[in-house]
Write a structure and sequence with these properties.
Elements lengths: L1 H5 L4 H6 L5 E7 L7 H14 L8 H5 L10 E3 L4 E7 L1 H10 L1 H10 L3 H13 L6 E13 L2
Antiparallel strand pairs: 1-4, 2-4, 3-4
Length: 145
């Protein structure tokens, strides 16, 4: 939905959207673990290792949709976050679900997560240790005049 605002293909939506109606766009940002060394390593992976392989629309998500023309009366929303507790295999599995990871693997013939895993393992601690993973949620809420 948010991508249709970016390319101005949302006209059909406005025909059926009543005056005073509320629209909420939301996305989750880049996660963090609350451990400086791990977060720096994983941000390096996100930005520098697979970063070139993210589709251009990823920038919309990273900006919390703030770069999209939003012709509505903005409504302030509270801060939200999404959290879970993961062990290392779950985190590494998550990294493998990223489209950028897949594109990187296809382009280079190498598994970037496999290359990253020993460095993460060295910082993680016991393999069965669960760590809190937090994704900040970005909301852009508007009311139609």
């Amino acid at each position: 939905m948010a991508h249709s605002f970016a390319d101005n293909s949302s006209r059909t939506f406005f025909v059926s959207w009543p005056p005073g109606g509320v629209l909420a766009l939301w996305t989750y940002g880049v996660y963090h673990l609350g451990d400086l060394a791990l977060d720096q390593l994983l941000q390096h992976f996100y930005r520098d290792i697979v970063g070139l392989y993210w589709p251009p629309e990823r920038r919309l998500v990273e900006s919390g949709y703030r770069t999209i023309a939003f012709p509505f009366e903005e409504v302030t929303s509270p801060a939200f976050a999404m959290t879970t507790d993961w062990r290392l295999p779950e985190l590494l599995g998550y990294l493998r679900t990223w489209s950028a990871t897949t594109r990187c693997r296809e382009a280079t013939g190498r598994d970037p997560v496999g290359a990253l895993a020993p460095e993460v393992e060295a910082l993680w601690g016991p393999m069965d240790r669960a760590r809190r993973v937090t994704w900040p949620l970005a909301l852009r809420v508007g009311r139609r005049p």
